[in-house]
Amino acid sequence: MSITLNPNSDTGTTASAPGTPEPPRRTRTGAVRFVRNTPIGVWVAAAVLTFLVLAAILPSVFLQQDPFEIDPANAFAAPGAGHPFGTDQNGRDVFSRVIAGTGQSLLLGLAATAIGLLLGGLLGITAGISGKWVDSAICRFVEILFAFPGLLLALIVIAVSGTGVVTAALAVGVGTAPGYARMLRTQTLQVVAAPYVETALSLGRSRSHILWHTIVPNVARPLFVLVTLGIGQAIVWASSLSFLGLGAQPPAAEWGAMLADGRNYLQVAWWIAAFPGIFITLAALTTTVVGHHLQRRLEAEV
After folding, report:
1. What is the spatial distance between Cα 194 and Cα 197, in angstroms, rounded to a whole number?
2. Is the separation of the CB atoms in 7 and 194 below 8 Å?
3. CA dihedral (10, 210, 143, 285) positive or negative
4. For the chain, first and last CA: distance in Å?
5. How many whole angstroms separate alpha carbon 111 and alpha carbon 93?
6. Quick check: pTM over 0.85?
7. How many CB atoms lie under 10 A from the CB of residue 68?
8. Quick one: 90-301 is in which CATH superfamily?
9. In a 3-state reduction of DSSP, which class is residue 87?
10. Which residues fall within 8 angstroms of residue 36, CB to CB, at 6 or more apart?
11. How is the chain split into domains, by residue range?
């Protein structure tokens, strides 16, 4: 006899007569309902986000020119047919540089979010499953971290570790970790208090088995939503560090570094800074819109 500890899992089976068309009809009805219940703004955000992901994975499909090719004779060319986003002070194609920078910017955001979730998860889950003393100590530590703005924590990490792309990802991850720790501690406490955990304990399941087979899977349910929401924030923070000269360094095709590179030419060539800034905004907005929609759907299911 097998016992399922997760109440969200469906242990029953649905019998249907051969040839009954109801399951396919339900599937089609569910798909239509999903499309109708999803706001048009979410679809637009998802489409833009899909484009950004494709540009990050397959930049060669969208690149028109070498993003690092210098052409001084063509410097400060305005946006036009040959250069949709114009050229920069070195004659490099801004569109190609923005597309080439999509991969690095998204990867920075994803890496920083993963680091933040890892550190925050270790703190939050440990606090949620431990005794009162450990829980209290971790909570006090997280509260101390919350006393500092997240970006200030990132700057402290950079001051200790130095500048660079890897350091920027680590710094942003550390800066976001306290928020993830608080959220995952709350989620862990809810799971630990669930009746199926008590049932597993009464059946003689070991605490390690309950942790890895019951608590962690249920705590991990909203992680995709957290990642989607967190990537946008991480991209903005990482771009801010690069803008300050603390992250990616020129001539890297990274949005924040490109924004910093173009700020000195706003009066003569506004497009050098404008288009990287637009893409930073699009990445932050689309991930936030999609993330909030997924969060609402997850809460509705619960």
Report:
1. 6
2. yes
3. negative
4. 28
5. 27
6. no
7. 14
8. MetI-like (1.10.3720.10)
9. strand
10. none
11. 90-301
